[in-house]
Each structure stands twice: as C-alpha cells, then as structure tokens.
C-alpha cells in the first residue's frame, strides 16, 4: 500500500487532504516521463508555448477563488493575501510567456573585427527537465517564479511542493494537465524532505530550490552528484532603513506590512529596521500605532493568520527570548504574543546586533527597530548580515543613493517588496540568501543554456584557424593587435595607415 501523509490546516489542525509519499523510484519515473514531454514541449515554437501558457493562465484566473481557498486552508493566510499572491503569479506567468522569444530567441551579435567574415548568433536553449522544490509560505507565487519561467523557456518541470502545501502544488499541475492532457509537461511529486532529496539527485537539468539555507546546502550537495546546477533562494534578514527626511507614516506602514504580512513568513519580508536618530521616536510611535491594529487569528477580520509550520513557533519564541534576555524591550507583543498556533505582532527595541532576532531569520510577525546616528551607520548595519536578499529604503532625497550602497539582490525605495511584483526585475539574493535568479530576463535565462553559433559568411582575408597560416599573416595579426589593443596614445601613425592599406 502507498504510504501517505496529511496536509493540515495550521489554524485548527483539520485535515485538508491526503497525499502519497513518493519515493525515489516514483520521482525517477516522473523525471523520465518529463524528459519525453520536454522533447515535445521544446519542439513547439515560442508562440505555441505562449498560447498554451496563456490558456492555462485563463483557467487559473477563472478559478482564483478555488485556489485562494486552498491556499488559505493549507497555509492559514487570509483569503485576500492568498488572492494577492495568485494575481502576482498570473502577472509573472503572462510576462514570462510573452517575453520568452525576445529574451531567449536567436539573435545576431557582432563578430568583432578579427572575425568579421563570420555571422555570429546566440540563442538560449531549454535545459530539459527542471526540478522545482518549493516552500509553504507562498505556495503559488514562489514556486511559480521558477515553474512559469522554466516552462516559458521550453522545459518540462517536476515540482515537489512543501509537505505543508501539497494540495496547492497538485492543483497547479492538475489545471495544467487540463490544458495539455497528453504530455506531462508539469508534474507534481509529493512527500517530505526525502522526496525533495530524490528530486535533487534525479536526472534533471537544474534544481530550483526555495527554503532554508541549511536545506539549500543539502540540495546542492545532492545535485552535485550529477553536476546538476542549482538555484538556491534561501530567505533573508531584510533591513528597512528610514532616513531623517522620510515620510514616516509611509515608512511605518511599509515596516509593519513588510514585517508582519503573511505573519512574517516572507523570505523578503522586513525583519530589522534602522532609523535615523532624529526621527526615531516619531517613527517608533507610528509603528506601534499601526502594528497595534494588526491581529493574528483565523476569523475574517484578522489581518494575519497562523504560523504555517508548527516548528517555526519555537524559533520565533527563541528569538524573542534571546532578545529580551540580552536587554531588548518589547514595546508591543513579546513572549506572551507567541501562542501555540498564532503569534501576535511584536516590536522589539534595544536589541543587541548579535542577538538571534537580528542575526537569524525569524519568519514571524516581529520587528527589531534600532536607532542609528546617520545613514552610513544604517547601511553598515544592514550590510552586516550574512543574508542579503532584499532591502528597503525610505528617504525623500537620498533613496537611490542609499539603495545603491546596500549589498542585497533587490532594494525597494519608498515602498516595500515592490520589486517582487515587477516581472521584468530579477529576484534572488547573495550570501546566505543563495544565488541564481527567478523573474525577468535573468529568470528566463536561468532555465536555459546559451547556444553560440559562428557561421562563416565569406572567406577570411587571413585564415587564422588553419595550419596554412603564413608568417606574413602572423605579422599582419601583430599589427592588427597593436591597432586594436595597443592603446591609442602610444600608437604610431604609420602602421595604422599601412594596415588600412593592406586590408
Ligand atoms: P526547508 O528548507 O527544510 O524546506 C523547503 C523545501 O525543501 C520543502 O519543500 C522541503 O520539503 C524540502 N526539503 C526538505 N529537506 C530536503 C532535502 N534534504 N532535500 C531536498 N528537499 C528538501 O524549510 P522549512 O520548511 O523547514 O523551513 C525552515 C526555515 O527555512 C524557515 O524557518 C525559514 O526561515 C526558511 N524558509 C525560507 C523560505 C523562503 O521563502 N526563502 C521558505 C520556507 C522556509 P518538506 O516541506 O516536505 O520538508
């Protein structure tokens, strides 16, 4: 009998669905089927793939209420938040399908002077089958950041959703299969970490992983057995910086939403805030006022839901405990705010920079707020993290300047997490936040390999790549190199003329 596991509603423990635990053999079989599907899918034109993906987008859009409800049940997040992540996903799918040809299709490039007789082209070919290992916090938006772009680039996908959100993953594959019933271009395998590990070891062209840094390392090690490249999107400890001239109400709104929306379970969510000392008190009051109106619960009035992964509650509690034990103060929430399933908004100040609440990913509705003397200190503290996914700056005059100094993959200026909703912008981090990019042209190219072609148009004046090359041609080559790379200041005029004549 097939082993199964239950997907539970984190708000109340109800069973939402029961799914098979797929072992290595089943994962390998899915990947084998995907290779056949990939042959068909990659053989379609960009326009044909766009048509399929657009039809799928329409199916999902028309059933948005159904998918939102499933996301709500499996993650506990409010229906409105579930719908938001789905709408953003649809926008990305649309962009990926619409831009794949322009970004990946064959184009001519200059062959350069030495090889002027050649026609040079580059195109980006699909890798075949992509293994996607997804998280539970945004079970539609996040994995689709890989799936949509991988499909648009001409790959088949085998997707292992988190064991907390298998229903959402299955729904995505089922609706795709309604559009493409004859070819398993998008398949789902369900199970826990072992199933994910089997996918990372399988015969795939690339693994796109989203989750913790620790698991990302395991995935990378497993993929290394076959020299399979990986993308690791591994969360962050994102900072929001508030300059002295910032709109404090807007900055507080961004800090509270960026830190507490989705109960803080956002890889690019705000976890730390650094505020110019001149506006610190006013900013903190504004945050307390706004955050005080946010409540976690399962009723329709609650703005945030439960903590989706039960073990995360312990992590959040340990970060709050550590902050308080080391001299931090909870101006809102605190240890009592951490319940069994729900965590109420918590605002911590005076927290030492080396405490867990500042150094490690909390993934709960908590914020640390610290006072800084100037923006140099704010940038230095923000950049001190080993994570480097996103960041946010609020400043009227110097937003772009401060943003440029932040060593993170993305920065939002005078708004929060906006970069994730712009399909043409790449999304990903550096450091412990991982590497590789989803979204945008980079996200399409991520699921391809570059194919370069040099076609000889006419015979070259000097045949460089042949044993028939003469000493005279070697001399001409030296002169040409001097002309091209010798530096204009020292270049004597005579050889230049000579070379021109000899061409
Ligand atoms: P994990 O990194 O353990 O899980 C992410 C995905 O990887 C899940 O699908 C998981 O499956 C799968 N997985 C687990 N073990 C392996 C393995 N050995 N090989 C391949 N795949 C594997 O994250 P958690 O869900 O346990 O969350 C832990 C922490 O990670 C959170 O506290 C948070 O800080 C961070 N996180 C960051 C996310 C982000 O968006 N960047 C998303 C989720 C978590 P399964 O769920 O079935 O175990």
TrEMBL record:
CDD domains: ALDH_DDALDH (cd07099). It comes from the Bacteria. Residues 3-451 form the Aldehyde dehydrogenase domain. GO terms for biological process: aldehyde metabolic process. InterPro entries: Ald_DH/histidinol_DH (IPR016161), Ald_DH_C (IPR016163), Ald_DH_CS_GLU (IPR029510), Ald_DH_N (IPR016162), Aldehyde_DH_dom (IPR015590), Aldehyde_DH_NAD(P) (IPR012394). The active site is at residues 233, 267. GO terms for molecular function: oxidoreductase activity, acting on the aldehyde or oxo group of donors, NAD or NADP as acceptor. The keyword Oxidoreductase applies. The keyword Oxidoreductase applies. Keywords: Oxidoreductase. Pfam families: Aldedh. Belongs to the aldehyde dehydrogenase family. This is Aldehyde dehydrogenase. It comes from Nocardioides donggukensis. The lineage of its organism: Bacteria, Bacillati, Actinomycetota, Actinomycetes, Propionibacteriales.
